[in-house]
Amino acid sequence: MEMEDQMESQKRRGISKDQLISERTGSLGCIGWFIVILSGIFTICLFPITIWFCLKIVQEYERAVIFRLGRITDRKAKGPGIFFVLPCTDSFVKVDLRTVSFDIPPQEILTKDSVTVCVDGVVYFRVSDPIASVANVSNADFSTRLLAQTTLRNVLGTKNLAELLSDREGIAHSMQSSLDEATDDWGIKVERVEIKDVKLPVQLQRAMAAEAEAAREARAKVIAAEGEMNASRALKEASLVIAESPSALQLRYLQTLNTIAAEKNSTIIFPLPMDVMSHFMKK
């Protein structure tokens, strides 16, 4: 907290972060330099043995932050490869630069429209500044995990249920921006945030299912009514065409007979036109 307050006060006075680190990595003082020189002489005198304590190696994905008598020795972390430390005065902390992913535990959240849901997610982050991740926060990984949980609750508390279910990408982007801004002083870069699952109460699921079923039935009735209306209009137009030509009705009879006769398992009653019967009755 003192480091954060100091950085804030320095920023207000227009001093950059590099200048602040430079102040923290300043002179060791007379006593400090005396101890360092004494440690160097001791290391040189016992060189064959102390070389194994001075020689350190970090991997390609790691960096080493070196402390000399409690002060950071350089603005830049050491590595990858081989570096040397003084065995009595120097200590170092390894920092992993690889992207780390973790699951946000399921959080029970009250949405803006007073609906209780259970939401979980996943966060991807990495260390962008090894010195800040060591000097500014006691445990950057654990702090980022806790901050992700509280940010998830704060962001989703401002959304209603419809936005929560339909705008997951926007919510994830908002969470990423908030987390990235909050962890910048810790040397953490939040790369991606995703909402994994939204669990609704069973009663709410049943209510939503009933609502969806009712909406589908209403749409089905509207579609059926529109179909009946279109069919009636087509029949009206067909009746007008048949009324203009009486022989069209007989052709329709023959077409119907052809369709029925294709099955070959029905008794066909063919209506005989009255004009044909009237011709025989006159004779």
TrEMBL record:
What are the UniProt keywords, alphabetically? Membrane, Transmembrane, Transmembrane helix
Location within or outside the cell: Membrane
PROSITE patterns tied to this protein: BAND_7
Look up keyword Membrane and say if it applies: yes
Q: Where are the transmembrane segments?
A: 31-55
Please give the chief subcellular localization of this protein.
Answer: membrane
**Which Pfam family is one of this chain's hits?**
Band_7
Residue span(s) of domain Band: 53-212
Keyword Protein biosynthesis attached: no
Q: Which GO terms describe its cellular component?
A: plasma membrane
* Origin superkingdom: Eukaryota
Q: Into which family does the record put it?
A: Belongs to the band 7/mec-2 family.
Can you name this protein? Stomatin (EPB72)-like 3b
Which organism was this protein described from?
A: Seriola dumerili (Greater amberjack)
